Amino acid sequence: MSKDLFLRLLNASGCLDALTAPEVARGLDGFVTKTITPLPREGNAPPRIAETAHGMLNAIGLANPGRERFLADTLPQLRELGVPLWISVGGFCAADYAETCAALEDVEAVELNLSCPNVDEAADSAAEIVAACRRATALPLYAKLSAAHPDVAEVARAVAAAGADGLSLVNTLRGLAIDPRTLQPVLARAQGGLSGPTLKPVALATVFACYSATKLPIVGMGGVTCAQDVVDLVACGAQDVALGTVLFSDPDAPVRIRTDLTSADLDEVFAAAYKKSAVLA
Amino acid sequence: MSRRERLSVNGVETVGAYTLLRLDRGTLDPGAPGQFFMLEAPGRLLPRALSLCLAPTGELAFLLDAVGPGTAALCALEPGDRIHVFGPLGNGFRLDVGRPLLVGGGIGMAPLPYLRAAIGDAPVVLGFRSDRHAEAAALLPAAEVVVDPVLVTSCIEDGYDVLACGPEPMLRAVADIAPDAQLAWEAPMACGYGACYGCAVDIGGELKRLCVEGPVLAAA
After folding, report:
1. CATH of span A9-279
2. ipTM topping 0.90
3. CA-to-CA distance for B156 and A203, rounded, in angstroms?
4. Which candidate among A47, A160, A218, B42 keeps its CA 20 to 30 Å from the CA of A185?
């Protein structure tokens, strides 16, 4: 953790490959992997991305090498980077998640992806999944939730009661873009996850509501493009902050935002926001 | 070595139906022919992936087709404007071929002027959808040019090492005629450096990231 910043800057899961861009990952206080599922997944057919007015849609579909190959090949290579590792874990039932958690050791934290908009939802509830993972591991467990739930604070309370150590807020929201020439959806899967600046007010509201409801440590994310966005999330109760879509257009964003956060004038604002989040009702 | 830098626009020229955007090179390396750069598109969230067209001394030049809001914003740049540019990225053409033939379709001709400068005086065949688009062939003097409905694949003779760039149906047709061809593919990209997984294409029955594995790939 960077003491100067009072927080950790991470990447949002699925927004960086530390093995193809190690220099970008080394600019972060932790690298969050793409979500790992028990079996390998090719992901969805292309086109998988579309730009929107103030955001983008993706329907990658949890492309990943699967648990076995991740543990044998990918994880050892990631360890060589010397960056604290957060492992994003996914699945289709509580046992899927718990088995991956049980196989993990010596990592910074586990993020349970309970909210990918691009695959069919797990049959078990978020709280059931967290409870199963809690029994499987002593590692810090962060539950990644969707702001699409009608009462996300209630879900936050439920996962807190089930043993979550923290929350990752927010995942993308489901959206769709139409190709003006064909009047067909741009994405092969039609719907995808909406991210980017358009998501920021949703992220602020969700972090605010879930921090008020649980007081759990929160990794805030959603539309962060600059230091002020980080301050805003912290003011709403986030303890750490993750960068997502901004990494696509600016691989230097971690360094740029860190530099701006430690600049003299923003430092005071940031300290004030941090204190405020500690006393939020 | 790829870097990200803010570059100044030196010139914006109309070339038939296309636009040639000339940027001051800054300290960026032009890279190998077929490699690409991510260009900030003013007012848009995501940069646009463009292969280098020409590398005059001190400059990087890109050929653009204004097909959407991002490329339109790039075509609307004026001398003195500055945009972020990241690159060079991906894998370019292999230049160690005996008898090269350069094949381009439409805006897919973009990387060929820089490729011909690097590979020596190779023959070039270009296909376009209209006479106005075909005016861009001026960037490749002495190229053989065909216009729709004549297909560029009808100009490919046996015995050449084909290096091609163009729309997907053209590349598939080239691969049928010339199984040893090197093909430069295109896909929507958010990042250009392997982060977003958006540019996945089917390569040998597996979905792979074009920005990392390509954009130039062996046909077979």
Report:
1. 3.20.20.70
2. yes
3. 55
4. B42
